[in-house]
Amino acid sequence: MPTLASARKDVEETRGRLREVQRKMEEQEARGEASQIFKSISTESSSSSESGGSKIFADRRWLQPTSEPPTPFPNGREVYVSTLNNLLAPAPSGDAGKNVYAVGPPGTGKTLTIRYVLDTLKEHVKGTGISVHVAYVNAGRTRSPYFTLLEIVRSLGLNVPSSGWQFSRLKEEFEKQRGGKACIIAIDEADTLLLKVREPLLYYLNRQENITLILITNRWDDLTALPARARSTLQAAPLIFQPYTAPEAVRILKERAQLAFKVGVADDQALDYAAALVAEAHDIRVGFNLLLTAGILAESQGRVKVDLVDLKRAERAIRPTL
Questions:
Q1: Which of 68, 137, 182, 190 has the smallest CB count inside 10 Å?
Q2: Is residue 90 helix, strand or coil?
């Protein structure tokens, strides 16, 4: 005979299943509504905007998720710039800086900030007689330790063929070309290497004299998954990139909106709305997407301003993809 406790457990499990069914139904409805919103966009209006007759956009490319920022300095990442400069400070003197493990969700400015600091450092040492090499490579594109090292060697000025060399020869040429000089190597999407072969390339680079490594990834667990010997020699300083706050997002979105929209199209209320969604989603690119979508919706209706109705419709249109 069922006990009261078992009956309560059955009821809770049933409620849980019902909540899950409800959640899936709501998600399906949201996806359907999002699709319908995009389908509602007038083909005629879209065509006229592409022909240069847009009343909304000045240059919508500034709201594309992969577009470069209008200015080199990473707005809202000032503390990270300062921290990186301090950690890398010994390198221009010929020593190794502090290894860095830069981690944070997508859209928090990791790559933008690190590339800015590296570019600034290269400009700083130019013409000073200081010998420090700076390299940036995206392991998500190279996809293997061999091609990652190949790009690093090429950054030293050596014309290496894409195939035909042994990995050992790449190492020899890297050491020969570098000549023991200080070197800062930033590896973006470092998890691509960690997940495939754990750590041989990183272990090799870190064992070289006067090399500073900056590993960039989205997840903290990528570091803790390394074998103990790699963590022991790496001793990386964790630099955790927090999502942009709403005020920081407003600064970035305003800068983009001024270039993407025609004058008076998007007001402060629109930027505040977009910034609030950025703070919720923890991704600045969501704000770009929201403003771009709202602009497309307003334009499809022949209007000259993005209002709150456009923003809310745009949010419903993109939310299932977040």
A1: 68
A2: coil
Higher pLDDT, 262 or 197: 262
- The CA distance from 311 to 292, in Å, is 10
Written as one string, the DSSP assignment of 34-89 is HHHHHHTS-HHHHHHIIIII-SSBS-GGGGSTTPPPSSSS-TT-HHHHHHHHHHHT
The verdict on residue 174 lying in a domain is yes
CB environment 239-252: b (16+ within 10 A), e (fewer): bebebbebebbbeb
Answer yes or no: are the C-beta atoms of 264 and 305 closer than 8 Å: yes
pLDDT at position 138 is 96
CA angle 263, 268, 274 (to 5 degrees): 105
Residue 90's DSSP bridge partners are none
Among 182, 217, 240, where does a domain finish? 240
User: Which comes out higher in pLDDT, residue 93 or 205?
Assistant: 205
Tell me the pLDDT tens digit for each residue of 205-242. 988 999 999 999 998 888 877 777 778 888 999 999 99
For residue 225, which of 196, 265, 184, 187 has the smallest C-alpha distance? 196
Q: Provide the number of structural domains found in the chain.
A: 2
Q: Which of 232, 154, 153, 148 is nearest to 190 (CA)?
A: 148
Q: What six digits make up the tokens of 212?
A: 């500073």
**C-alpha dihedral over 167, 169, 174, 176, to 10 degrees?**
160
Q: Quick one: pLDDT at residue 48? A: 45
Which residue range is the domain that position 316 belongs to?
Answer: 35-68+245-321
Closest by alpha carbon to 90, among 237, 238, 191? 237
